[in-house]
Description:
Blueprint: H1 11-21, E1 24-32, E2 39-46, E3 50-57, E4 63-67, E5 72-76, E6 86-88, H2 108-120, E7 122-132, E8 135-144, E9 155-161, E10 167-173, E11 179-190
Antiparallel strand pairs: 1-2, 1-11, 2-3, 3-4, 4-5, 5-6, 7-8, 8-9, 9-10, 10-11
Helix pairs in contact: 1-2
Amino acid sequence: xxxxxxxxxxxxxxxxxxxxxxxxxxxxxxxxxxxxxxxxxxxxxxxxxxxxxxxxxxxxxxxxxxxxxxxxxxxxxxxxxxxxxxxxxxxxxxxxxxxxxxxxxxxxxxxxxxxxxxxxxxxxxxxxxxxxxxxxxxxxxxxxxxxxxxxxxxxxxxxxxxxxxxxxxxxxxxxxxxxxxxxxxxxxxxxxxxxxxxxxx
Length: 201
C-alpha cells in the first residue's frame, strides 16, 4: 500500500522553492527515450547557470561546459581540458539531445518551470509515496487539458524525494500518449563545497 502525501501540498511549488534556495548540485542522469540510444552523464550545475556534462554513454569521455557569462559552450570530445576544444552556441544542433534539449536549459529549475506551466493549463494528481532507487519519493502526475501541450509535453509524471523535495525521476508523454523521455536522477547532491565540484571550464 502506498503512503499518501498531504493532498493540499503543491509539490511542484515546493521543489521550485528548494531549487531557488540552492547554490549548486551534482547528479548522475540516465535518460531513455523511444528510438534513441540511452544517455548517461555526470551532470553538475552552479548558479547562476554554469553547467558541466561528462558523458558516460554515448560519446564516453566527452565533456560539455556552458558558461552563462559568455553564453558559449565548450566541447572537449576526448575529455575535459584536452585538445581539440570547440566553442559552440547552446542552440547548435551538434550538442542538442534527440528531443531538442539545450545545455543552457537542462537544469532542474527549467524543468520545473515547464511543469508549472503545464499545471496552470491542466490538473495535478498526487498518487502516493513510492520507492525510487534508494529513496522514498512522492509520485505526482501533471496532465494538460486536451488539445494543449507545453514544449511538446502533454503529461509529466514526477517523483519528488521526500527528504530534499527535488525530482529524482521524470517521465514525459506527448499529446498522443506516447512516451517522450524518462530521466532518472541518481545520487543527487545539493550545495556541495566548491572543492567538491569539478571546474566548469
